[in-house]
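Entry 0007
Protein: Branched-chain amino acid transport protein (AzlD)
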Amino acid sequence: MSASPENLVAILVMALAAMAAKGGGFIAMRWLGRHRFVTALLDHAPGAVLVSAAIVPLAQTGGAFIVGAVVAAVMTRKVGGFTPGLFGGVGAVALARWAGLA
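Output (structure tokens):
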């Protein structure tokens, strides 16, 4: 397997951009501190990530994805965390597809 020089440069630039973004976040948190707005934003970020990842399949296909979204929302709320909701939603979609729901 070989890669062209353009691909390797693109990968290197993307890695540098990712490290710069992460470092910039740490620097910004040093300057901003833990204000109420920043704390609220960070507390709600996992839910926003889950919704943004799930809305496209829900709008385009439905069926198994709607089942997964409902299970994910309930598990996130009742079990109390992003990770159980994520795994529950993925598992529910897999089970619904296995059961024949499109």
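Curator remark: The mean pLDDT is 82. The CA atoms of residues 5 and 94 lie 39 Å apart.
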